[in-house]
Amino acid sequence: MSKTEDFLSRLAREPAVLVSVDSTRGSAPREQGAWMAVFAKGAVGTIGGGHLEFQAIAVARARLAGAVGEPVLRFALGPSLGQCCGGVVFLRFEVVTAADAAALRRRIAQQLPPVALFGGGHVGAALARVIATLPFALTWIDSRDGIFPDDVPNDVCCDYSEPVQAAVRGLAAGSRLIIMSFSHAEDLDIVAAALARQRERADLPYIGLIGSKTKWATFRHRLAARGFSPEELAHVTCPIGIAGITGKEPEVIAVAVAAQLLQVSPQMSA
Predict the structure, then answer these.
(1) For tag attachment on the chain, is the N or C end more exposed, with fewer CB atoms within 10 Å?
(2) C-alpha torsion angle, residues 113, 117, 131, 136 (rounded to 10)
(3) What are the angstrom distances between the C-alpha of 204 and each of 24, 165, 178, 232?
(4) What is the pTM of this model?
(5) Strand segments (E) across 137-192
(6) CATH superfamily of 112-268
(7) Where are the domains of the chain?
(8) Rg (CA), the chain
(9) pLDDT tens across 55-77, in order?
């Protein structure tokens, strides 16, 4: 179960205080948008740990018990908190109940960088499981009926698209694309659609294609024949995954690719 689903599942049974990083100054343990849900017993998520989180939980529990106060509080990360980051964190405290669940789901999803994963095979399934635990909003796409497993996390959106490349135009701006369909023909069409969108909108920060250098050499030749320039083709990452990880098991590939996604725009993660 993802952090979001854990939070909303518990929220259906009891109220919580949502503690989120409203803004920061200087060095801070978490970025704007990071959040933690505090319940009467226990919490989901983290805003950075240490004494900052300890004090935030105490404030949140007091709000759950009926205490009132300013919605945003300032915390200096210095000796008084037993922390040496040296920055300042402004935390927002919101009492939330089951009635807020739908709005919270949309709000949390909007804060997360979107990822579009094309391909429901073994590697795609392994990668979907990893990405579902990370700060991304995942859309999982395939052209085949019945390909997605029954235990897909609730906050992963599964999309059947035939032809599969038709899904590219409707993706959220800022989507990171990972292309690993069941056939090279589909992969080629998806890459072409992604490059066409990138030419038109320039809103896809990462287009990753699974495969070897030989596969990419063939694709590059065919895409050039479709009119894409060397500068446009340079926007495609192939092979995918961070360097130095050589294992071919689906789970190993998944970890390497997920790590590369986190390198694309780490400041956007929440």
Answers:
(1) N
(2) 10
(3) 28, 15, 11, 12
(4) 0.73
(5) 137-142, 157-160, 176-179
(6) NAD(P)-binding Rossmann-like Domain (3.40.50.720)
(7) 3-108, 112-268
(8) 21
(9) 999 999 999 999 999 999 999 88
